[in-house]
Amino acid sequence: MKNTQSEDSKIVRLMQLYIENRCSDKERDELLSWLKQTDCYDPIDSILNTHWERIMNEVRTPDQLREKELQNEFELIRQKIRGTKKLKKHKPSGLNWLLKVAAVILLLLGIGTSIYKLKDPAVTSITYTEFKSAHGKIKKIKLTDGTLVTLNSGSSLKLPNNFNNKSRFVQMEGEAFFDVAKNAEKPFIIESGDATVKVLGTSFNVKAYKEDKLMAVTVATGKVMVNIDAMDLQLKLLPNEHLSVDKNTSEFSKTTIEENNYSKWISGILYFDKEPLDDVIKELNRKYDKKVILSCKSCNQQISGSHDNKSLEAVIDAICFTTGLKYTQNGNTIIIHE
Asked: FecR protein domain: from which residue to which, for each copy (predicted)?
C-alpha cells in the first residue's frame, strides 16, 4: 500500500519525534498502527533516508554477531506485527538498512536490546521516572534543574533519565503549576496530549486532563509558547494571559485576566470559569476522591464560581442551586439529576 506524500511527511515527523525521545503515547500508537497496516516495509527505507545521517552520528555500529541477532529480532517483529499473514519478501540492503529499522522499529516495539548505545558506551537506553498525584492529593516536586512543579490531584509527570543533559523535556497529564528555572540554552518543554508548551524560565499553569473537554494554559510570569498540532495552532502567552481550548470543536479563546484564579487549586480552592458541567463533575471526582455521577440528558450548563476549601456536599449544593438540578446520595456516591 503506497502512502501519499502528506502521509509520508506525517510518518517522518512521528519517527523524528520518537528518535528525539519526544513521542507521546498517542503518537507512538499512531506510528505503530501505520506499521501494522502497511503491506511492505520498503517505505521505511525511503522515509528514513532523510534523517539517517544524523541518526548514524548518534549510534554505534554493532559487530557481525550483533548484526545476526538483529536480523533474527527483526524477523520476530515482522511476525509479531503481521501475525500468520504471509509477508511480502523484503530484500534489505545489508547492515545499513537493518540499522535504520533498528533505530526506530525495534525501539518502538520494545523488542530485544537493539538500542545501540550512544557515543558513550556506558549510556543506557532512555527510561522514565513517573510522579503521580493521587485523587484528593497535591504533590510538589523539585526537578534537578531547580524547577518546581506542583501536581494537582489525578495528575502525572514523566521525566526521561537524560533530563537536563541537552534539553529539558517532560510529559504531563492532568494539571500542574510550573515554576521553571531559567536556562536560555535549554528551553523547558512540556508535552501534554496534542499540546506542547515551551519556555525558558517562567511560571504558569497547565490544565490538560485527557478526559476533560477543555485544556488551558495560564501564565503568571514570563512568556510561554503553546503549540497544538491537531489544530495547527501556535500562540505566545504573556503574564496574566489565559488560553482555553475546546478539544472537541477546536475553538479557543485567549484573554487577559486581572487576577490569576486558575492556580488557586494549589491552596485548595476550586475555581470554575464557564466550564462545562461534565468537566466540573470530573474535577470534583479528582479532588474529593468520591464518586459523583451526572445523570441527565440535557445537562450542558456552564459553571462559574469559586469554592474555598468547602466540603463536597457544599459544592454540590451550590451547583444544584445555580443549575436547578437535584442530587441524591448513597454512601460515597452522589448522583446529580434533573
From this structure: 132-224
Residue 131 has pLDDT above 60, yes or no: yes
The whole-angstrom separation of Cα 334 and Cα 53 is 59
Cell numbers found for residue 57: 552520528
- Name the band, by pLDDT with cuts 50, 70 and 90, for residue 54: very low
Interhelix angle 312-323/277-288, rounded to 10 degrees, is 170
With 90 as the cut, is the pLDDT of residue 139 above it? yes
Q: Are 138 and 266 in contact (CB under 8 A)?
A: yes
What class has domain 268-337?
Answer: alpha beta
Buried b or exposed e, range 204-215, using 16+ CB within 10 angstroms:
bbbbbbeebebb
Pairing of strands 333-337, 291-295: parallel
Rounded CA gap, 196 and 228, in Å?
6
Predicted pLDDT at 8: 59
What pLDDT was estimated at residue 241?
95
pLDDT value at residue 95 = 41
H or E stretch at 95: helix 95-101
Q: Is the Cβ–Cβ distance between 306 and 315 less than 8 Å?
A: no
State phi, psi for 5 to the nearest 5 degrees: -60, -40
**Numbers of helices and strands, H then E, in the chain:** 8, 18
In the chain, where the domains are located = 5-109, 128-256, 268-337
Q: What does the pLDDT read at residue 52?
A: 45
Instruction: Name the fold adopted by 128-256.
Output: Jelly Rolls (2.60.120)
Contact 205, 218 (CB under 8 A): yes
Q: What sign does the CA torsion over 111, 114, 118, 120 have?
A: positive
Helix, strand, coil fractions of the chain, as percent rounded to 5: 30, 30, 35
Residue 333 has pLDDT above 70, yes or no: yes
- Name 192's bridge partners: 195
89 C-beta neighbours (distance < 10 Å), count: 6
Greatest extent of the chain over all pairs of C-alpha atoms, in Å: 74
